[in-house]
Amino acid sequence: MKAAILETLGQPLRIAEMSAPEIGTGEVVVDVVAAPVLSYANEVFSGKRRYMIDLPMVPGCGAIGRVRTTGPDATHLKPGDWVFCDPTVRSRDDALMPDITLQGWSARGEGGMRLQRHFHDGTFAEQVRVPTENAIRIGEIDPGDAARWCALNTMLVPYGGLLAAHFQAGETLLVSGATGNFGSACVATALAMGAACVVAPGRNESVLADLKRRFGDRVRTVKLSGNEDDDREHMRASAPGPVDCVIDLLPPSATTTTVRAAVMTVRPYGRVVLMGGVGMLGGDGLDLPYPWIMRNDITVRGKWMYSPEAVTRMTGLIRAGLLDLGHFDVSAFSLADANEAVAHAAAHGGPFRMTVVRP
Prior knowledge:
The chain is an alpha/beta fold. It has 2 domains: about 1-150 and about 330-359, Medium-chain alcohol dehydrogenases, catalytic domain (Quinone Oxidoreductase, Chain A, domain 1, Alpha-Beta Complex); about 155-300, Rossmann fold (3-Layer(aba) Sandwich), CATH 3.40.50. About 30% of the residues lie in helices and about 25% in strands. Strands 3, 4, 5, 9, 10, 17 and 18 form a 7-stranded mixed β-sheet that branches. Strand 12, helix 6 and strand 13 (about 220-225) form a beta-alpha-beta unit.
């Protein structure tokens, strides 16, 4: 089969023939139809993000495809089924504290690296081998829509945070980082879940205006000034009532003061979910006042990625017409042009813009 191979950090992907994956028990082989190219893929491939990667490797984080072959443990999947290939691979020998790797992308700790060495290659290839539980059925789709279904890869991340926060219909959510790729997807997802209001702060006025245009009065945009106290008051004032939940999706380049300004808008007994990249490249930690957390009974939790059932539940939101994949503009590239796709994704990232490779 043909694949794009990352042999050395800082070097272009090499497009080459390689052996097709061989199936084992507990595994599924999927024919890749469309694979998303993340906007920061160039930072991963250059080594700037300092991800744990076992090279050489076929990269690619998630895909939409059709089942080719299944192992003996598969009781529902059958060849030809349309599936989302979930890149979040969890070890199976410790249900309480599973090790995790993002297949074809990065590992977390030594246990994650051991997983990566087995579920090694990602989706920039004609076929990919995934754990049985990671080939998740999405129902019949038009093959021409496969690239747009790659939006699952983006929307599932904030959806995981919202589920972890037990976000409820009728509540008010503040999305810290609303003008970013994951943040804007969070706005759309929260509204699909029945949010009464989403407060969307940011510095990019054109993106804020676009969010307002797309989603109407249920979105309250706030232009940030950089002054922590002023920004906090403006965010609170923009909401029609108390902020029930705050989710942070800011990138590594953001400051902790920006995070804190948003986090401390939450009401007493409110919830905060941290999912962003702040601090991953060094710098100050997030300093939250102990008395404020304790006396206001604030719940603060971290969340990385999403639970396994999130894919099926989000597919339900899409099938019900509550979440519109039509918001996403898609630019598609052939596998032979994978390097051009990586460059395009870096130059054309942002809200509701998606680059995909179509093997």
